[in-house]
Amino acid sequence: MSLAHTTVLLWVWSTLQAFEIVEKENIFQKTPCPAFLMFDNAAYLADMSFELPCHCKPEEVLTVVWYYQKHLGSSHTKVLTDFDGRLLTEASQVRAGSDMLVRFSIHMFSLLVFRAQPEDSGLYFCGTRKGDYFYAYDVDIQSSEGMVAIFKDKGQEPFADEYHGSLRVFTTFWEWTPCDRCGVRGEQWRIGLCYLQSPDLSPRYRKTLPDVVSCGSQAVPRKLRVMVKGHMPELLVQSCLVPCKKNQIQKGMLAIYNFVSKVGSRPWMPQVPIQFHQQRLGHGLIISCPGARPEHAVAWDKDHQRLYRTQYLKGVNRSMRVFIDHGNQLHIRFTQLSDRGIYYCWRQGVRIAGFRLGVTSRGRYPASLSDPETRSAVQLTLIGYLLIIVVFVTIHLCRCCCYLFRFCPNFSP
């Protein structure tokens, strides 16, 4: 290619890039900020990650600062920024239960919150360092504890709407997830969150539908929150069957193994990456699917056994030792020797990883307070000592009272 052609191509590329930047700036020019600050209502399930875009800002503002308040007008306000307009956080390194100040990131004026918890519900403001607000959100994080599972294959139906005078409480379902397995019978589900409709909502909160907001919204008066407290999120599950897409790379690897192996003794080749883990007998284990989020379609298999949510979803049976929680994690309580095997993980209909679990009854296992069994043993020990102290003190108090009132029985021989 000649120098002239190269120059022309570079000029065209720079022009297109400049045009793209101008277009991004025009978005804020065409979207004026409201004169009166309103709150956009948004609802999510616990442990999900969400993004709040700053839809408007003055042209002279180059970086934004996000603020958080639990309630409108609260004296305690969290500043979500590193004062450079952005904070890079890896979602895979975020742990549930961590403070929100280590679970957020700012990218292109948008706020990203990872693994949100019900405590993160509240008001989020997009503004400047001086405290000028441009845009605001009313975020409702609904807890997955007590979530009701509904299995369509068993003929179950979602709960009917509730009416309390002019108040209507109902469930709004998201779209169906993709089938969590391919080539075999799988499952798909949709999450339903609690919403209500009432004419008594605060007019300062913007609604998608007239007089409709999520049940935990700040727009709901306190007297109405008591009526919707018992309406839990729902999980609708049904069976599905989709074909698998052919993997040409996997066929090539099989051809190489067939060529280098002896006739009739082809070595075993895992179809997905396998991770090995050794677990001590009697201790609990939690396995997470790599790269999966609560809203993803995730499935688990043990060797050739399908662990369907119809039987293994958390809450189906209170005495379950092996179950899948609402965050798509596989729990094994009090590991047994029969738990040995390979646990395969499906994500969005593709099997992506395997975990070979070995169970041993020997070896040193360092005690740690992060271990649930260790915490339970410590709690039971402390409760036992406390009961002994209470009984000891009670007996001596009774003896003292007896001596004071001169009617204490004589226990001496």
Structure explained in plain terms:
By secondary structure, this protein is of the alpha+beta class. The protein has three domains: 20-142, Immunoglobulin-like (Sandwich); 148-240, no CATH class; 272-360, Immunoglobulin-like. The chain is 21% helix and 30% strand. It has helices at 3-30, 222-228, 248-260, 309-312, 372-405, and strands spanning 39-45, 50-52, 65-69, 77-80, 104-107, 110-113, 122-127, 133-142, 148-151, 162-164, 167-173, 186-197, 205-206, 212-214, 234-240, 274-280, 285-287, 298-302, 305-307, 322-324, 330-332, 341-347, 350-360. The strands form five sheets. It has a six-stranded mixed sheet with strand order 4-3-7-8-1-13, with no helix packed on it. The longest helix has 34 residues, at 372-405. It is globular, with a radius of gyration of 29 Å. Residues 267-345 form the Ig-like domain.
Question: Which structural traits does this protein have?
Answer:
glycoprotein, alpha+beta, 6-stranded mixed beta sheet, 3 domains, Immunoglobulin-like, 413 residues, Ig-like_dom
List the helices and strands and how they pair.
Blueprint: H1 3-30, E1 39-45, E2 50-52, E3 65-69, E4 77-80, E5 104-107, E6 110-113, E7 122-127, E8 133-142, E9 148-151, E10 162-164, E11 167-173, E12 186-197, E13 205-206, E14 212-214, H2 222-228, E15 234-240, H3 248-260, E16 274-280, E17 285-287, E18 298-302, E19 305-307, H4 309-312, E20 322-324, E21 330-332, E22 341-347, E23 350-360, H5 372-405
Parallel strand pairs: 1-8, 1-13, 9-15, 16-23
Antiparallel strand pairs: 2-6, 3-4, 3-7, 5-6, 7-8, 10-11, 11-12, 12-14, 12-15, 17-21, 18-19, 18-22, 20-21, 22-23
